[in-house]
Amino acid sequence: MTAIALSIVACIGALLLLLSMLRMTRLSLGIPFAYLFLLELIHVPGALAHLASDGVLTDPELTQLGIEYAAAGCCCFVAGVALARYRRPRQLPPQAADRTSFSLFCLAESVGIIRSGPVP
Asked: pLDDT tens for residues 18-28?
């Protein structure tokens, strides 16, 4: 297998790994998947074209370097998503909100007692 083919396999594998990670918790809007899919949509078809051509296309070294960088970026992105998903942020204990002063402020603003200026 050539370096271009290995990089394409790494890109597609990273995409599938990210998809399985996102489907496991089901708490995602799919933005990481969309970003990685679009990144691969930019890079993988060109690498496939160079892989399928019999030396007709020029600069296969630059294409190989580009797809290797794309594969490294895909793998690092998936690792970053995994770190962000499995690291639990510190949660603060729930506190009661002071709703009385906020409701008085809203009432005063609607009546016009407080003049904060025109709303743009």
From this structure: 998 888 877 77
